[in-house]
Design a protein that fits this description.
Length: 265
């Protein structure tokens, strides 16, 4: 399983904000989308999740089947998106919200999903929300809620998992655990993970491939070493960004140089 957008043109009210973007989210692999605010990352991810209708281009599964031709339920069995904001339901328990993820697997009368309870328990366990299963979601902190929504996506058990800034609101432990989880899903379960990240060092650490967006276009795609290059990043973000190698991990590492650092580095 995987998903590819080809030559996508995406806009709002007749104004294009993504123009001719192509991006592949491959099976058993983590693809990170990075780029400045407003460069079109969320719009592109939402289009891949069929939440934003393209003005042009194609979205296909491997083999060429168009994602836009599937029924909503069939699509939801294959692709899920953890979006940046979702309305928080009032008075609904964590377990029930995670259960929403099973909707494409259920029959018309919420029946016929023998794997449901196990998938829900597993999703709650790996996101660390089991202890709050009976609490109402509107009582949770931002980070706890983020993990509940992630569990909902995991319970959906799709081959393509799209995540829009999943580490926002999370403390250091859960940021790292979500990165670990992405790698585990790709490496052990063959999931195609597409993730928007602002932290370039997190992207370098977790991703097999990175796509750098710049004003609605994919400026570069490739391995972290290929894409995280000082002059391209400096031009794209409009601030000096130095690139080196982390001596401890051997991973590519980036450092934006603000005025407060001039003279110190
Ligand atoms: N609902 C909307 N109506 C009109 N324009 C929008 C809407 N949502 C986004 N845009 C515009 O589309 C462009 C791309 O926005 P998008 O949210 O995809 O960028 P992004 O790269 O995800 O940004 P960020 O890093 O700030 O989340 C921006 O110029 C934004 O102002």
């Amino acid at each position: 399983m995987g998903l590819a957008g080809d030559d996508l043109r995406l806009g709002y009210h007749g104004t294009l904000v993504v123009d001719g973007a192509s991006l592949g989210i491959e099976a058993a692999s983590v693809t990170a989308l990075v780029g400045p605010n407003g460069s079109g990352k969320s719009t592109l991810l939402r289009a891949l999740a069929r939440l934003h209708h393209p003005d042009g281009g194609r979205i296909t599964f491997p083999g060429g089947e168009s994602a836009l031709d599937l029924s909503a339920k069939d699509f939801a069995r294959k692709v899920t998106l953890l979006s940046q904001s979702r309305p928080t339901p009032n008075g609904v328990s964590v377990r029930d919200v995670v259960g929403y993820g099973r909707h494409p697997h259920r029959g018309r009368w919420r029946t016929g999903d023998p794997g449901g309870p196990r998938a829900i328990d597993h999703a709650m366990s790996v996101t660390g929300v089991t202890a709050m299963a009976d609490r109402a979601v509107d009582e949770l902190s931002g980070g706890e809620l983020q993990r509940v929504w992630l569990a909902t996506c995991l319970a959906q058990d799709t081959g393509v998992l799209l995540l829009d800034e999943p580490t926002t609101f999370l403390d250091l432990r859960y940021q790292v655990e979500i990165l670990d989880l992405m790698r585990e899903l790709a490496d052990l379960h063959g999931v195609a993970v597409g993730v928007v990240l602002h932290d370039l060092n997190q992207a370098a650490a977790v991703a097999d491939r990175i796509a750098l967006l710049d004003r609605g276009r994919v400026r570069a795609t490739g391995t972290p070493e290929e894409v995280l290059e000082s002059s391209a990043l400096t031009e794209t973000y409009g601030i000096r960004i130095e690139v080196g190698t982390d001596p401890a991990t051997g991973l590519v590492s980036t450092r934006p140089i603000g005025k407060h650092l001039v003279g110190r580095v």
